[in-house]
Amino acid sequence: MRVATRFFGYLLLTTAALLVLFSGQALALVDVGSDGSSGVFRVAGTRSKDLSRAVTGSWNQPGDSLGVYDPDKWAVVFRYDSVYVAAGRTLTFVNHPSGAPVVWLVKRGVRIEGSVNLNGEGCALWSVKPYAEPGPGGFRGGRATAPGPSTGSAGMGPGGGAYRIGSGSYGGPGSYGTVGTAAGAGPTYGNDRILPLIGGSGGGGPEIASWGGGGAGGGAILVAAGRAIDLFQNSAIYSNGGLGNFGGSGGAIRLVADQVAGLGQLQCSNAYSGGKGRIRIEANTITYSGGTDPIYVPQVGIPGNIAIIWPPSDAPAVRVTSVAGQPVPTDPRASFGPPGDLSLSTSTPVEVLCEGTNIPVSGWKVTVRVARKSGQEFSVDATFTGGNQAVSTWTAVLPQVLPAADMVAVQARASKL
User: What are residue 90's DSSP bridge partners?
Assistant: First the structure.
């Protein structure tokens, strides 16, 4: 049994145009943690940013135009000087092997006239595509059932939809197909601050061969600018869940700046059954009046002089530390293919150990979800086995003996009772 534990264009502008674009933006009014060392990012043609090329290191090391992947923060970080996306142009992304979300820390300003696309991939009816790919920071859709004995799977992620009957959830619950019931939809998760930054979850695959798989979850992006973020009319940032037999949930968009203005669109939704994602705008001045889905509540007066980029040190967190006695990599990256993060050989129920930090030992619970490559997923509540609120241990014994040839994704989440 194998276990997976987590799963260039150019700009043609005259000198005068550049002076207009960035005039008055020499000094940052909000400290967003950027020294501008990733340079100026300009998108003048349809462009795909390959996150897999990011160097691995600390998010606050000198920047690189390829980005820096910080395993501790689980993010691909760019420390730009300024960002410009031209009208009629689209920026897309290729996922990092870790599946991490995108963080833009911009010393000066961001001007978006075109679109930034972090949508989850769809898996349409009658498609036999194995898994729909999410936007960066999101999670895969469930596998389609193939003709013969190969069954489908549940959607991936903390709000993944159940195999056969459920779509993905995130800020809002998904529904079952189009009949409006939440039966089989994954649980909601995350918080209104979008700390930590995380994307949407996948919809489940169906049991009928050739009906197609579940849609993938939308990705997650943080755009933090020292001065202004301007979303021009006809511009958009998309992080929608993918369509499928059961839809993936929308992802997350978080904007932080001294000023956010404009008429552009922000979308973290799904036109077919997937739950809505999360949108947050925090700025000292907000004149933005564009359309959003879901609706957001403006956070005016935040961030002040210093932006909060990462979760505070006392934020609750939980991670899987070992499965059947084998330590889990601190930066797991396996997909549903060999070799996996761990390889087990056992015919007995498997014990999963989790470590919690800043989790109250009463009034909270830790749940371990097991999504199989083929077949029904299941969840089990872990038992508190030691420690205190600062650092605690939790143990879950999986109620099923997993076949030796099986491959599963194991994920833990902590939540209030």
Answer: 115
Tell me which fold the domain 317-416 belongs to: Immunoglobulin-like (2.60.40)
**Cβ atoms 203, 274 nearer than 8 A:** yes
Nearest to 272 by CA among 350, 177, 190: 177
Model pLDDT for residues 31-79, shown as the tens digit of each residue: 999 999 999 999 998 889 999 999 999 999 987 899 999 999 999 999 9
Residue with tokens 């390959």: 50
Give the residue extent of every domain in the chain: 1-312, 317-416
DSSP helix/strand/coil, 50 = strand
How confident is the model at residue 226, as a pLDDT?
97
DSSP letters spanning 108-150? S-EEESSEEE-PPPPB-TT---S-PPPPTT--PPPPPPPSSS-
Q: What is the dihedral of CA 269, 165, 334, 351, to 10 degrees?
A: 130
Which residues 6+ apart lie within 8 Å of 259 measured at CB?
Answer: 227, 228, 229, 283, 284, 285, 286, 287
Nearest alpha carbon to residue 380 among 393, 367, 371 = 367
As a three-state string, the secondary structure of 150-196 is CCCECCCCCCCCCCCCCCCCCCCCCCCCCCCCCCCCCCCCCCCCCCC
DSSP state of 375: B
β-pairing, 391-397 vs 351-357, is antiparallel
193-240 confidence digits (pLDDT tens): 999 999 999 999 888 766 778 999 999 999 999 999 999 999 999 999
Contact 278, 299 (CB under 8 A): no
Q: What would the pLDDT profile of 379-392 be if each residue is shown by its tens digit? A: 999 999 999 999 99
How many C-beta neighbours within 10 Å does residue 208 have? 12
Helix (H, G, I), strand (E, B) or coil at 261: strand
Q: Give the C-alpha distances (Å, rounded to integers) separating 241 from 29, 55, 167, 246, 277.
A: 34, 28, 10, 10, 8
Mean pLDDT of 171-177: 80
3-state secondary structure of 312: coil
